[in-house]
UniProtKB/TrEMBL annotation:
This is Cytochrome c oxidase assembly protein. The keyword Transmembrane helix applies. Its main location: membrane. The keyword rRNA processing does not apply. Pfam families: Caa3_CtaG (PF09678). It is a multi-pass membrane protein. Keywords: Cell membrane, Membrane, Transmembrane, Transmembrane helix. The lineage of its organism: Bacteria, Pseudomonadati, Pseudomonadota, Alphaproteobacteria, Acetobacterales. The chain crosses the membrane at residues 18-41, 47-65, 72-88, 100-121, 128-149, 177-199. It is found in: Cell membrane. It comes from the Bacteria.
Amino acid sequence: MAVLALLALGWRRSPNRVALLAGSGLVALALLSPLCSLAVALFSARVAQHMALVLIAAPLLAVGLRARAPSAPVSASVFAAMLWLWHLPAPYGWTFTSDLAWWASHLSLLVAAVWLWQALLHARPESALAAGIVTAAQMGVLGAFLTFAPRPLYLPHAFTTWPWGLSALEDQQLGGLLMWVPGGVLFAGLALAAVARALREARPAG
């Protein structure tokens, strides 16, 4: 209900209601579709759910919502903290035993991602470049760690992956790749876009 109330308030003040509506629809799809049920069985599906929220829904919401985000460095730091926190084995496992933890994980990641995207969209080019590179790097490190870990790290998926033809380790590796490649590529691309914008702004002065 709190999420609906915030979106309703955002709708009244939104400078881009199409983006807000699209972002809200993607949030609902990620959290209420069969993908959510699949995420109970597969770690890779949970990562796909998170990537849909932070890489697709969040930038749309950032465009659609009129809000003041923290600075790009602060937003990037908060996003990194939330991403690593909810993919550590203990907090991750907690989301399977507590509805409060489940909602907290998804909503804190989403809010942190919206802040990050808002900050990147309005930051100075050099600040957006730095935040984009840092975000791409930290997502890549976490994804690589999950991909190359020698053993499964997540007890909730110890016996849930076999019906899908995956071992728990293979499922974890797939989730790591989903985080490593799409997340790293997107934020690296954003960093390059910031460089291009900086060069365009510097051209008249030259």
